[in-house]
Write a structure and sequence with these properties.
The protein has a single domain, classed as NAD(P)-binding Rossmann-like Domain (Rossmann fold, 3-Layer(aba) Sandwich), CATH 3.40.50.720. The chain has 14 helices and twelve strands. Helix 3 links the parallel strand 2 and strand 3. Helix 2 packs across helix 14, helix 11 packs across helix 13 and helix 13 packs antiparallel against helix 14. The longest helix has 29 residues. It is globular, with a radius of gyration of 19 Å.
Length: about 375
């Protein structure tokens, strides 16, 4: 495979702080950074689920693991002062839409105040570091969501200059995080920050509740029929490595071309990956085998968008980023990871995960 565009030489020996490193995407990102020999520091609460990719992939063994709450400003500032990173990738978040209906205060405080704490802690840290001639944060990437946009159920993709919005507390919190980042860029500008907005991410090692793939894996592994909600809702599905490649490339570009790269960026999948829920489940059933089955759960459910699509033209033309996996390949990689874990087919799930990363990156 050709290389995905990230530059391993940039990351080799680079001091990188990943918030939310115990989560699904944070664990994949931390493992990828370790492949490129970055010096990785993590700041997060305990893994949100058990099992988790953090545990299965022994992520603690490849980084400096600090536990703390992103809502605690002093803790965030403290980890910056301790680790002295050059790059900060902020992934810590409450990431499940339906959970925001159960705990709206927790969702908003984590996603909004947590982001504000990172922005302000980086700003204060840089002021002190500059005065002392010490390492400064030169690249700050805030990971939000495609749901940050005011959803009008359009058939075309949302572009980075579309209005922020949100019907539910989760979506609103992501829109607010975007506005906060923009305000810091305009008010202070040092260091300029960029945000990354991705679609519905799938991949091995996700066990969050109320997410389609983890729910499917639990049902199929137990020989149960998967019950799904909103089978006709269309989502831009993508393997986790696709947006992570965008985050890494964005951080690299931000390091040297800060002002030109600051702001929002979409990292959505190709048009073949814009599938409704029923289509995804049908294809997953076919890939999984073993008489896996599903049915429509019916009943009333909290509001979720029917159609949501990203226009990633900006990332294509200005960063050189493009999705590389089609819909079927993303599902095959995902199913292969879970099946290897369930059947103990791999001597180490860390090695298996690193193998998928290397195959994707062309390392």
């Amino acid at each position: 495979m050709a290389h995905v565009g990230t530059n391993p030489d940039f990351w080799r020996g680079r001091r990188v702080l990943v918030t939310g490193h115990t989560g699904f995407k944070g664990s994949w990102l931390s493992l990828w950074l370790s492949v490129m020999q970055a010096r990785v520091f993590g700041f997060a609460l305990a893994p949100p689920t058990s099992p988790s990719l953090f545990e299965r992939g022994d992520v603690a063994g490849i980084l400096d693991d600090t536990r703390g709450d992103i809502r605690n400003f002093e803790a965030v500032l403290g980890v910056l002062q301790k680790t002295k990173p050059e790059v900060v990738l902020h992934l810590a978040a409450q990431s499940v839409l339906r959970e925001s209906y159960v705990d709206p205060i927790g969702t908003v405080s984590t996603n909004v105040m947590g982001t504000l704490n990172v922005l302000e802690a980086v700003r204060q840290h840089n002021i002190k570091s500059k005065a002392a001639g010490a390492n400064m944060v030169r690249s700050l990437v805030i990971v939000t969501s495609d749901k940050c946009y005011e959803n009008r159920e359009w058939v075309w993709g949302y572009r980075e200059n579309e209005p922020m919005g949100g019907h539910d507390p989760y979506s609103t919190s992501k829109g607010c995080a975007e506005l906060l980042m923009s305000s810091y860029n305009q008010s202070f500008g040092e260091p300029p920050a960029a945000s990354a907005r991705a679609g519905n991410v799938i991949g091995g090692g996700d066990w969050a509740k109320d997410r389609l793939i983890p729910d499917a894996v639990r049902a199929f592994a137990a020989g149960q029929v998967l019950e799904i909600r909103n089978p006709h809702a269309i989502r831009p599905w993508q393997h986790v490595l696709e947006p992570l490649a965008g985050y890494l490339l964005l951080a690299e570009q931000l390091f040297d071309k800060a002002a030109a790269v600051a702001g929002g960026w979409n990292f959505g999948p190709g048009t073949d990956s814009e599938q409704n829920v029923a289509s995804l489940v049908e294809k997953l059933v076919a890939v999984w085998g073993n008489e896996a089955q599903w049915k429509d759960a019916g009943g009333d459910n909290p509001h979720e968008a029917t159609f949501l699509k990203l226009d990633s033209s900006k990332a294509h033309f200005k960063l050189g980023w493009r999705p590389r996996l089609n819909f079927e390949d993303a599902l095959k990689l995902t199913a292969a990871w879970y099946q290897a874990d369930l059947r103990h087919q791999a001597s180490s799930m860390q090695d298996f995960t690193l193998g998928q990363i290397r195959d994707y990156a062309g390392a």
